[in-house]
Structure formats: structure tokens, C-alpha cells
Amino acid sequence: MTDVNLATAQENMVEQQLRTWDVLNERVLEVMQKLPRHEFVPTAFANLAYADMQLPLGYDQVMLEPKVEARLLQALDPQPNERVLEIGTGTGFLTACLGEMAANVTSVDIYADFTELASSNLKQAGIDNTRLETADAAAGWDDGQRYDVIAVTGSLPELHQGFHRSLAEGGRLFLIVGQPPIMEAVLITRVSDDQWACESLFDTSAPALVGAPVTRSFAV
Q: Of 217, 113, 197, whose CA–CA distance to 157 is shortest?
């Protein structure tokens, strides 16, 4: 696929996927139009970078569909003065989007391969306000800081509150919760020190966050 075709595919992604799936936030549309998603996907799938599908990354993990990434960004609405925590760095594309929209991003992945790849991709894209960590954050992340925005890109088989207290008051948390084939994307907002509001966003499905806590058995 030529550069011209990639540019056309990116434009089509914005107009035919994002806008038709109720992504109307202009800042989100601008960042999805600006960043070269094809430079963040595995080389073998570069031609599918703007397709409406998940792309395999290895370790049974995926890159979420562009429309899901965009709806995530729209729901969280990161502001230029806000701090972001991302759980599940992957190739760094969503990290880059968050970095473009917010003041800074801390992104955590359990796989060192992904951290290394994302670091290279972010450097190439000129995104320099991110800090990458390799660690297991499936049960939560407590580095002593509070974040305005938290994006968890792997699903949780069961909702837990491991990330809730890492939110600043007024902070927003995006989660995908449930079992396949249908899961629920939710937005959790910290409204006070001990209260959170939960809003259902849309149905989707994504691989579970590696090591996500499960306290009960599910029938197959």
C-alpha cells in the first residue's frame, strides 16, 4: 500500500468509522487524523492499520479497533493540563494519542518487548511527554500519585477497584469489563474521596488484562 493509499485509508477511518460511531470530539478526530497509526502497528499488518478490526500483537494481545480507541479518548477527554495513566502500552499508539492530548502519560505494560517497541515508536513520532514502565499492574497501580485520567486497554473479567483510588477527584477511568463474547466499556468518575459514578458506554470485546484478578469460575 502506497503512502497515498495510507493517507486515504486514514481519512476514511476518520470519516467512515469514527464519525459514524458517534466520535464527534474534534480534538480526538484531529489526533487520530494526525498520528500515523500504520507506523505503530506490526509491520505485517501495516496495510490494515486503518481497518475496523483488532490487530494481533503477540502474547495473545491485540491493538484495539480504531473506533474503540477513539471512543475511549472521547470518554476520557484528556485535557492539556492533566496527567494520564495507561495500563497496557502495546505498540504505543494510544499512548501517543494520550500524549498529544494531555500534559504527560505514564504507561505500564507487563511485557518488556512491548515497552521497548513502544519507546521506539514514540520517539519516532516525536512524543516526549511519556514515561514507560514494565510491570504487572493487573490488580492496580499505586506509585503514590493521583491521575486525572486512567485508561485500561485490556479487559477485566470482573470489575475491581484496584485503579479507583489512583484517580484524582474528578478523574476519569476507562475499563472494559466482562466475559466474551460481549463485554461492557464503562467510564468511572471519582466524584469525591469515597464516591465514584459509573457510566455504561458501549458493548465491545477485548482480551483480558494479563493476570487480571478472578474470584469466581465462569461456565464455558
A: 217
Does some domain include residue 139?
yes
* Selection from 169, 182, 116, 176 nearest residue 152 by Cα: 176
Between CA 201 and CA 208 the distance in angstroms is: 18
Distance CA 206, CA 156 (A): 9
Quick check: 152 and 106 in contact, CB under 8 A? no
- How does pLDDT run across 91-144, given as a tens digit for each residue? 999 999 999 999 999 999 999 999 999 999 999 999 999 999 999 999 999 999
Q: Is residue 22 part of a domain?
A: no
Domain count for the chain:
1
Q: CA-CA distance, 58 to 74, in Å (whole number)?
A: 27
The domain of 175 spans 53-204
Question: What CATH number corresponds to the domain at position 75?
Answer: 3.40.50.150
Residue 209 vs residues 35, 37, 109, 159, 185: alpha-carbon distances, Å? 25, 22, 10, 12, 14
Instruction: Confirm whether 113 is domain-assigned.
Output: yes
In a domain? residue 215: no
Q: What is the pLDDT of residue 215?
A: 80
pTM of the model: 0.95
